Amino acid sequence: MEEKLKLNVKVTLLISLSLVTWGAFSEIFNSTIQNILVVKLGNSETFKGVIMSIGNVCALLLFPLFGMLSDSTTSKFGKRKPYIVVGGLITAASMIGAMVFANRNSTVGFSVFITVAMLGMAVNQPAAFAIIPDLTPKPLNSEANALKGIVLASGGFAVTVFIIVFGTNFTVVYSATTAVMVLSLVMFMLFVNESKMHNAQRATLDKYNRVLDSSHKDKFRISTMPKDKKRSVFFILAVTLFSFFAYGAVMSTYVNYANKVWDMPYNQTGIFVILIGVGGLIVIYPVTVVAKKIGRKNTVMLGLGFLFSGFVIAAFMKEFGLLTLVAYLLFGIGWSALNIISMPMLFELSDASTLGTFVSAYTVACTIGRTIAPFVIGVLIDNTKYGYAVLYPVAAAAVVVAAICLLFVKHGNVTPVHEEKSLSAAQANS
Description:
Blueprint: H1 9-15, H2 20-31, H3 33-40, H4 45-72, H5 81-103, H6 107-134, H7 141-166, H8 170-191, H9 194-200, H10 202-209, H11 227-251, H12 254-260, H13 270-283, H14 286-294, H15 296-316, H16 322-347, H17 355-383, H18 391-406, H19 416-428
Protein backbone atom coordinates (compact mmCIF):
# COMPACT_ATOMS: atom_id res chain seq x y z
CA MET A 1 0.00 0.00 0.00
CA GLU A 2 1.28 3.46 -0.90
CA GLU A 3 2.83 5.32 2.00
CA LYS A 4 1.36 8.79 2.61
CA LEU A 5 3.53 11.61 3.88
CA LYS A 6 2.20 13.29 6.99
CA LEU A 7 3.56 16.43 8.62
CA ASN A 8 4.95 15.96 12.14
CA VAL A 9 3.14 18.89 13.75
CA LYS A 10 4.97 18.66 17.10
CA VAL A 11 8.43 18.70 15.51
CA THR A 12 7.44 21.54 13.14
CA LEU A 13 6.13 23.69 16.01
CA LEU A 14 9.25 23.06 18.10
CA ILE A 15 11.70 23.99 15.36
CA SER A 16 9.53 27.02 14.53
CA LEU A 17 10.48 28.43 17.95
CA SER A 18 13.63 29.54 16.14
CA LEU A 19 11.52 32.27 14.49
CA VAL A 20 9.90 33.85 17.55
CA THR A 21 12.89 36.17 18.01
CA TRP A 22 12.57 37.37 14.42
CA GLY A 23 8.80 37.84 14.76
CA ALA A 24 9.22 39.89 17.94
CA PHE A 25 12.10 41.98 16.61
CA SER A 26 10.33 42.63 13.33
CA GLU A 27 7.32 44.06 15.17
CA ILE A 28 9.52 46.17 17.48
CA PHE A 29 11.35 47.42 14.39
CA ASN A 30 8.15 48.32 12.54
CA SER A 31 6.07 49.67 15.42
CA THR A 32 8.46 51.49 17.78
CA ILE A 33 11.53 52.68 15.91
CA GLN A 34 9.61 55.11 13.72
CA ASN A 35 7.95 56.59 16.81
CA ILE A 36 11.16 56.78 18.86
CA LEU A 37 13.26 58.35 16.09
CA VAL A 38 10.66 60.83 14.78
CA VAL A 39 8.41 61.64 17.76
CA LYS A 40 10.53 60.99 20.86
CA LEU A 41 13.96 61.97 19.49
CA GLY A 42 12.74 64.62 17.01
CA ASN A 43 14.33 63.36 13.78
CA SER A 44 12.91 63.66 10.25
CA GLU A 45 11.16 60.93 8.26
CA THR A 46 14.18 60.87 5.93
CA PHE A 47 16.58 60.27 8.83
CA LYS A 48 14.27 57.55 10.14
CA GLY A 49 14.39 55.93 6.72
CA VAL A 50 18.19 56.07 6.64
CA ILE A 51 18.55 54.43 10.07
CA MET A 52 15.95 51.76 9.31
CA SER A 53 17.79 51.06 6.06
CA ILE A 54 21.42 51.18 7.20
CA GLY A 55 21.22 48.14 9.46
CA ASN A 56 19.47 46.24 6.69
CA VAL A 57 22.32 47.12 4.30
CA CYS A 58 24.86 45.64 6.73
CA ALA A 59 22.65 42.59 7.21
CA LEU A 60 22.34 42.28 3.43
CA LEU A 61 26.08 41.67 3.18
CA LEU A 62 26.00 39.05 5.94
CA PHE A 63 22.95 36.99 4.88
CA PRO A 64 24.75 35.09 2.08
CA LEU A 65 27.80 34.53 4.29
CA PHE A 66 25.88 32.97 7.17
CA GLY A 67 23.60 31.03 4.83
CA MET A 68 26.58 29.37 3.18
CA LEU A 69 28.34 28.88 6.53
CA SER A 70 25.35 27.08 8.00
CA ASP A 71 25.13 24.89 4.87
CA SER A 72 28.66 23.64 5.50
CA THR A 73 28.61 23.56 9.33
CA THR A 74 28.86 20.24 11.16
CA SER A 75 28.67 20.25 14.94
CA LYS A 76 27.16 18.17 17.70
CA PHE A 77 24.48 20.87 18.01
CA GLY A 78 23.55 20.62 14.30
CA LYS A 79 23.99 22.78 11.19
CA ARG A 80 21.63 25.64 11.96
CA LYS A 81 21.15 25.67 15.73
CA PRO A 82 24.40 27.47 16.70
CA TYR A 83 23.60 30.41 14.38
CA ILE A 84 20.00 30.61 15.56
CA VAL A 85 20.95 30.77 19.23
CA VAL A 86 23.99 33.08 18.98
CA GLY A 87 22.30 35.51 16.58
CA GLY A 88 19.14 35.58 18.69
CA LEU A 89 21.06 36.34 21.89
CA ILE A 90 22.98 39.17 20.18
CA THR A 91 19.66 40.73 19.17
CA ALA A 92 18.10 40.29 22.61
CA ALA A 93 21.09 41.91 24.34
CA SER A 94 21.11 44.79 21.84
CA MET A 95 17.45 45.49 22.57
CA ILE A 96 18.36 46.34 26.16
CA GLY A 97 21.10 48.69 24.96
CA ALA A 98 18.67 50.40 22.57
CA MET A 99 16.16 50.85 25.38
CA VAL A 100 18.75 52.47 27.66
CA PHE A 101 19.82 55.02 25.03
CA ALA A 102 16.20 55.77 24.03
CA ASN A 103 15.56 56.69 27.66
CA ARG A 104 18.64 58.94 27.57
CA ASN A 105 17.31 60.66 24.43
CA SER A 106 20.44 59.64 22.52
CA THR A 107 19.80 59.24 18.80
CA VAL A 108 23.34 57.94 18.19
CA GLY A 109 23.29 55.33 20.97
CA PHE A 110 19.80 54.11 20.07
CA SER A 111 20.67 53.87 16.36
CA VAL A 112 23.90 51.95 17.03
CA PHE A 113 22.23 49.31 19.20
CA ILE A 114 19.32 48.86 16.79
CA THR A 115 21.87 48.32 14.00
CA VAL A 116 23.70 45.70 16.11
CA ALA A 117 20.35 44.01 16.77
CA MET A 118 19.77 43.79 13.01
CA LEU A 119 23.23 42.28 12.58
CA GLY A 120 22.27 39.64 15.15
CA MET A 121 19.25 38.85 13.02
CA ALA A 122 21.56 38.51 10.00
CA VAL A 123 23.29 35.68 11.86
CA ASN A 124 20.02 34.17 13.09
CA GLN A 125 17.58 34.53 10.20
CA PRO A 126 19.12 32.45 7.36
CA ALA A 127 19.54 29.46 9.68
CA ALA A 128 16.13 29.95 11.32
CA PHE A 129 14.35 29.92 7.95
CA ALA A 130 16.45 27.00 6.65
CA ILE A 131 15.99 24.58 9.56
CA ILE A 132 12.29 23.97 8.82
CA PRO A 133 12.67 22.90 5.16
CA ASP A 134 15.84 21.06 6.26
CA LEU A 135 13.69 18.79 8.44
CA THR A 136 10.57 18.70 6.21
CA PRO A 137 10.02 16.62 3.04
CA LYS A 138 9.45 19.00 0.08
CA PRO A 139 5.81 17.97 -0.61
CA LEU A 140 4.92 19.10 2.94
CA ASN A 141 6.70 22.47 2.79
CA SER A 142 3.53 24.53 2.35
CA GLU A 143 1.86 22.93 5.39
CA ALA A 144 5.04 23.37 7.45
CA ASN A 145 5.29 26.99 6.30
CA ALA A 146 1.73 27.61 7.48
CA LEU A 147 2.52 26.31 10.98
CA LYS A 148 5.76 28.27 10.96
CA GLY A 149 3.72 31.37 10.20
CA ILE A 150 1.64 30.91 13.35
CA VAL A 151 4.71 30.64 15.59
CA LEU A 152 6.46 33.52 13.81
CA ALA A 153 3.36 35.69 14.24
CA SER A 154 3.16 34.86 17.95
CA GLY A 155 6.35 36.84 18.58
CA GLY A 156 4.95 39.87 16.79
CA PHE A 157 1.55 39.48 18.46
CA ALA A 158 3.15 39.50 21.92
CA VAL A 159 4.90 42.79 21.09
CA THR A 160 1.63 44.25 19.78
CA VAL A 161 -0.08 43.43 23.08
CA PHE A 162 2.78 45.08 25.00
CA ILE A 163 2.38 48.25 22.90
CA ILE A 164 -1.41 48.35 23.32
CA VAL A 165 -1.12 47.92 27.09
CA PHE A 166 1.99 50.03 27.81
CA GLY A 167 1.94 52.52 24.91
CA THR A 168 5.08 54.66 24.79
CA ASN A 169 6.52 53.20 27.99
CA PHE A 170 9.37 51.76 25.94
CA THR A 171 11.24 50.51 29.00
CA VAL A 172 8.48 48.00 29.70
CA VAL A 173 7.83 47.23 26.02
CA TYR A 174 11.50 46.53 25.24
CA SER A 175 12.11 44.59 28.48
CA ALA A 176 9.06 42.38 27.92
CA THR A 177 10.04 41.80 24.28
CA THR A 178 13.56 40.79 25.29
CA ALA A 179 12.08 38.33 27.80
CA VAL A 180 9.96 36.74 25.02
CA MET A 181 13.04 36.41 22.81
CA VAL A 182 15.18 34.81 25.52
CA LEU A 183 12.40 32.45 26.63
CA SER A 184 11.82 31.20 23.07
CA LEU A 185 15.56 30.68 22.55
CA VAL A 186 15.87 28.73 25.80
CA MET A 187 12.92 26.52 24.83
CA PHE A 188 14.46 26.00 21.39
CA MET A 189 17.79 25.00 22.95
CA LEU A 190 16.14 22.57 25.37
CA PHE A 191 13.59 20.88 23.09
CA VAL A 192 15.19 20.89 19.64
CA ASN A 193 17.92 18.34 18.95
CA GLU A 194 18.56 19.14 15.30
CA SER A 195 20.90 16.21 14.60
CA LYS A 196 18.60 13.68 16.26
CA MET A 197 15.54 15.01 14.42
CA HIS A 198 17.35 14.80 11.09
CA ASN A 199 18.69 11.29 11.67
CA ALA A 200 15.21 10.05 12.65
CA GLN A 201 13.89 10.77 9.14
CA ARG A 202 17.08 10.68 7.09
CA ALA A 203 15.74 8.20 4.51
CA THR A 204 12.60 10.24 3.82
CA LEU A 205 14.51 13.51 3.59
CA ASP A 206 17.08 12.01 1.23
CA LYS A 207 14.26 10.70 -0.97
CA TYR A 208 12.35 13.98 -1.32
CA ASN A 209 14.86 16.76 -0.67
CA ARG A 210 17.66 15.75 -3.03
CA VAL A 211 17.72 16.96 -6.63
CA LEU A 212 19.56 14.42 -8.77
CA ASP A 213 18.98 14.70 -12.50
CA SER A 214 21.01 14.67 -15.69
CA SER A 215 21.78 18.39 -15.53
CA HIS A 216 23.65 17.95 -12.23
CA LYS A 217 25.22 14.52 -12.86
CA ASP A 218 25.94 13.27 -9.32
CA LYS A 219 25.78 16.46 -7.26
CA PHE A 220 23.40 19.41 -7.21
CA ARG A 221 25.05 22.66 -8.28
CA ILE A 222 23.35 26.00 -8.79
CA SER A 223 25.70 26.66 -11.72
CA THR A 224 24.38 23.61 -13.61
CA MET A 225 20.68 24.35 -13.16
CA PRO A 226 18.79 24.58 -16.48
CA LYS A 227 18.37 28.17 -17.69
CA ASP A 228 14.57 28.09 -17.41
CA LYS A 229 14.82 27.04 -13.75
CA LYS A 230 17.43 29.73 -13.04
CA ARG A 231 15.05 32.24 -14.64
CA SER A 232 12.23 31.08 -12.36
CA VAL A 233 14.49 31.45 -9.31
CA PHE A 234 15.32 35.01 -10.40
CA PHE A 235 11.69 36.01 -10.89
CA ILE A 236 10.55 34.38 -7.61
CA LEU A 237 13.20 36.51 -5.89
CA ALA A 238 11.97 39.57 -7.80
CA VAL A 239 8.41 38.90 -6.61
CA THR A 240 9.80 38.63 -3.08
CA LEU A 241 11.75 41.88 -3.37
CA PHE A 242 8.87 44.01 -4.65
CA SER A 243 6.29 42.53 -2.28
CA PHE A 244 8.62 43.19 0.67
CA PHE A 245 9.14 46.72 -0.62
CA ALA A 246 5.38 47.23 -0.43
CA TYR A 247 5.23 45.62 3.02
CA GLY A 248 8.27 47.55 4.28
CA ALA A 249 6.93 50.86 3.02
CA VAL A 250 3.65 50.45 4.91
CA MET A 251 5.02 48.85 8.07
CA SER A 252 7.82 51.42 8.48
CA THR A 253 5.36 54.32 8.28
CA TYR A 254 1.86 53.16 9.27
CA VAL A 255 2.16 54.32 12.90
CA ASN A 256 3.07 57.90 11.98
CA TYR A 257 0.55 57.84 9.09
CA ALA A 258 -2.27 56.78 11.41
CA ASN A 259 -1.24 59.39 13.97
CA LYS A 260 -0.87 62.32 11.58
CA VAL A 261 -3.49 61.53 8.90
CA TRP A 262 -6.14 59.59 10.83
CA ASP A 263 -5.43 61.32 14.18
CA MET A 264 -5.03 58.03 16.07
CA PRO A 265 -3.17 57.83 19.42
CA TYR A 266 0.02 55.75 19.28
CA ASN A 267 -1.18 52.91 21.52
CA GLN A 268 -4.30 52.39 19.34
CA THR A 269 -2.29 51.72 16.16
CA GLY A 270 -1.67 48.18 17.38
CA ILE A 271 -5.14 47.31 16.05
CA PHE A 272 -3.65 47.26 12.55
CA VAL A 273 -1.07 44.63 13.47
CA ILE A 274 -3.81 42.55 15.10
CA LEU A 275 -5.91 42.79 11.92
CA ILE A 276 -2.93 41.70 9.80
CA GLY A 277 -2.46 38.77 12.18
CA VAL A 278 -6.16 37.85 12.12
CA GLY A 279 -6.20 38.00 8.33
CA GLY A 280 -3.17 35.73 8.27
CA LEU A 281 -4.73 33.23 10.68
CA ILE A 282 -7.93 33.10 8.62
CA VAL A 283 -6.08 31.78 5.59
CA ILE A 284 -3.22 29.77 7.15
CA TYR A 285 -4.88 26.41 6.48
CA PRO A 286 -7.20 27.30 3.56
CA VAL A 287 -4.29 28.73 1.53
CA THR A 288 -2.50 25.36 1.50
CA VAL A 289 -5.71 23.69 0.27
CA VAL A 290 -6.20 26.35 -2.39
CA ALA A 291 -2.57 25.94 -3.53
CA LYS A 292 -3.22 22.23 -4.12
CA LYS A 293 -6.35 23.03 -6.12
CA ILE A 294 -5.18 25.91 -8.31
CA GLY A 295 -1.39 25.66 -7.97
CA ARG A 296 1.16 27.65 -6.01
CA LYS A 297 1.72 30.34 -8.64
CA ASN A 298 -1.99 31.18 -8.90
CA THR A 299 -2.29 31.23 -5.11
CA VAL A 300 0.57 33.73 -4.84
CA MET A 301 -1.14 35.88 -7.51
CA LEU A 302 -4.33 35.73 -5.45
CA GLY A 303 -2.39 36.89 -2.40
CA LEU A 304 -0.97 39.82 -4.35
CA GLY A 305 -4.53 40.70 -5.38
CA PHE A 306 -5.63 40.90 -1.75
CA LEU A 307 -2.60 43.04 -0.89
CA PHE A 308 -3.33 45.43 -3.75
CA SER A 309 -6.99 45.73 -2.73
CA GLY A 310 -6.06 46.54 0.86
CA PHE A 311 -3.61 49.26 -0.15
CA VAL A 312 -6.06 50.86 -2.60
CA ILE A 313 -8.82 51.01 0.02
CA ALA A 314 -6.42 52.49 2.62
CA ALA A 315 -5.25 55.13 0.11
CA PHE A 316 -8.80 56.50 -0.20
CA MET A 317 -9.47 56.65 3.54
CA LYS A 318 -9.21 60.24 4.78
CA GLU A 319 -10.09 59.24 8.35
CA PHE A 320 -10.17 56.08 10.42
CA GLY A 321 -13.27 53.97 9.80
CA LEU A 322 -14.66 50.51 9.12
CA LEU A 323 -13.11 50.35 5.65
CA THR A 324 -9.69 51.02 7.22
CA LEU A 325 -10.11 47.83 9.23
CA VAL A 326 -11.20 45.97 6.10
CA ALA A 327 -8.11 47.26 4.27
CA TYR A 328 -5.75 45.88 6.89
CA LEU A 329 -7.63 42.59 7.09
CA LEU A 330 -7.14 42.21 3.32
CA PHE A 331 -3.49 43.16 3.84
CA GLY A 332 -3.13 40.31 6.36
CA ILE A 333 -4.87 37.77 4.13
CA GLY A 334 -2.75 38.67 1.11
CA TRP A 335 0.52 38.85 3.00
CA SER A 336 -0.02 35.46 4.64
CA ALA A 337 -0.98 33.76 1.36
CA LEU A 338 2.03 35.25 -0.38
CA ASN A 339 4.55 34.22 2.27
CA ILE A 340 3.22 30.74 2.98
CA ILE A 341 3.31 29.70 -0.66
CA SER A 342 6.10 31.72 -2.33
CA MET A 343 8.91 30.40 -0.15
CA PRO A 344 8.15 26.70 -0.92
CA MET A 345 8.13 27.63 -4.63
CA LEU A 346 11.77 28.67 -4.27
CA PHE A 347 12.75 25.70 -2.10
CA GLU A 348 11.18 23.34 -4.64
CA LEU A 349 14.04 24.29 -6.97
CA SER A 350 16.72 23.73 -4.32
CA ASP A 351 18.55 20.69 -2.99
CA ALA A 352 19.16 19.85 0.68
CA SER A 353 22.87 20.62 0.24
CA THR A 354 22.21 24.20 -0.93
CA LEU A 355 19.13 25.08 1.10
CA GLY A 356 20.96 27.64 3.24
CA THR A 357 22.17 29.39 0.09
CA PHE A 358 18.62 29.54 -1.32
CA VAL A 359 17.31 30.79 2.03
CA SER A 360 20.01 33.46 1.99
CA ALA A 361 18.96 34.50 -1.52
CA TYR A 362 15.35 34.73 -0.31
CA THR A 363 16.30 36.77 2.78
CA VAL A 364 18.56 39.03 0.68
CA ALA A 365 15.60 39.76 -1.63
CA CYS A 366 13.38 40.44 1.41
CA THR A 367 16.02 42.70 2.93
CA ILE A 368 16.63 44.70 -0.25
CA GLY A 369 12.89 45.42 -0.39
CA ARG A 370 12.71 46.32 3.29
CA THR A 371 15.92 48.38 3.06
CA ILE A 372 14.93 50.55 0.13
CA ALA A 373 11.32 51.08 1.23
CA PRO A 374 11.72 53.20 4.42
CA PHE A 375 14.26 55.48 2.73
CA VAL A 376 12.22 55.96 -0.46
CA ILE A 377 8.99 56.57 1.45
CA GLY A 378 10.72 58.93 3.89
CA VAL A 379 12.17 61.01 1.06
CA LEU A 380 8.82 61.14 -0.77
CA ILE A 381 6.94 62.17 2.37
CA ASP A 382 9.44 64.90 3.25
CA ASN A 383 10.05 66.24 -0.26
CA THR A 384 6.80 66.07 -2.22
CA LYS A 385 3.62 68.10 -1.88
CA TYR A 386 1.64 64.91 -1.25
CA GLY A 387 3.32 64.11 2.08
CA TYR A 388 1.98 60.97 3.74
CA ALA A 389 -0.57 60.51 0.94
CA VAL A 390 2.13 58.84 -1.21
CA LEU A 391 2.38 55.81 1.11
CA TYR A 392 -0.39 53.46 -0.06
CA PRO A 393 -0.25 54.31 -3.80
CA VAL A 394 3.50 53.54 -3.82
CA ALA A 395 2.90 50.26 -1.97
CA ALA A 396 0.14 49.31 -4.43
CA ALA A 397 2.42 50.08 -7.39
CA ALA A 398 5.11 47.78 -5.96
CA VAL A 399 2.53 44.98 -5.72
CA VAL A 400 1.68 45.45 -9.40
CA VAL A 401 5.37 45.10 -10.32
CA ALA A 402 5.57 41.92 -8.19
CA ALA A 403 2.56 40.49 -10.05
CA ILE A 404 4.19 41.20 -13.42
CA CYS A 405 7.36 39.39 -12.28
CA LEU A 406 5.26 36.41 -11.17
CA LEU A 407 3.98 35.96 -14.72
CA PHE A 408 7.51 34.93 -15.77
CA VAL A 409 7.81 32.17 -13.11
CA LYS A 410 7.50 28.76 -14.80
CA HIS A 411 8.81 26.36 -12.11
CA GLY A 412 8.29 25.65 -8.42
CA ASN A 413 4.55 25.39 -8.95
CA VAL A 414 3.43 21.95 -7.73
CA THR A 415 -0.12 20.97 -8.75
CA PRO A 416 -1.99 18.10 -7.05
CA VAL A 417 -1.61 15.86 -10.10
CA HIS A 418 2.13 16.45 -10.35
CA GLU A 419 2.52 15.96 -6.62
CA GLU A 420 0.68 12.64 -6.71
CA LYS A 421 2.78 11.45 -9.65
CA SER A 422 6.05 12.55 -8.07
CA LEU A 423 5.18 10.82 -4.81
CA SER A 424 4.14 7.61 -6.58
CA ALA A 425 7.26 7.58 -8.75
CA ALA A 426 9.55 8.19 -5.80
CA GLN A 427 7.90 5.41 -3.79
CA ALA A 428 7.88 3.00 -6.73
CA ASN A 429 11.60 3.53 -7.26
CA SER A 430 12.50 3.18 -3.58
